[in-house]
Amino acid sequence: MEPLWASLLALDGRVSEEVTDLRCQVLTDAMHAVSSWWVKGPLFVAVALIADLVAARAARRWVPLGMFATLGSVLLASFASTWAKGVFDRARPPLSDVGISAITVLPRSASFPSGHATTAFAAAAALAVMRPSLRWWAFGLAAAVAFSRVYLGVHFAGDVLAGALLGGATGAALGLLARRIGNVAPSPAV
User: CA nearest 93: which of 23, 155, 32, 149?
Assistant: First the structure.
């Protein structure tokens, strides 16, 4: 099992180095914007609230289930990510791989799993369950957030993959729970 694990970690490092080789000023500016704190959760919650308002007007009722599911997913995923970071305690790429440098402030927390990817995918999954017409936008933005963390050199590719899986499962579960509690079907897909 150890040789397999060592091979996976080596592959993770190589993939992460390849991503950082894509750096150019325009992409760097975009990745800094996508990696901002307000994108990984608050933007999704705001979109869910707006979608709830539109749906409430059409259905003549007001229950912001999508917003609550999305917000709850972000909070639960953030907690789960923080807990996992304490358990795994993986060093950030610049601290453990000389081939990767960070081009943003290097967080002091552990690297695995990516909190940005975890919360972004949690929000995207909850929003996608509640409002399927927004799923492509939500998952596209979540993927951009996850990619930005590798591009900026603060996470390995495996960190964001684990975060995406953890967050996606969290968001989908809370979205399905919110639908069941509200006894509502998702809004129609576009």
Answer: 155
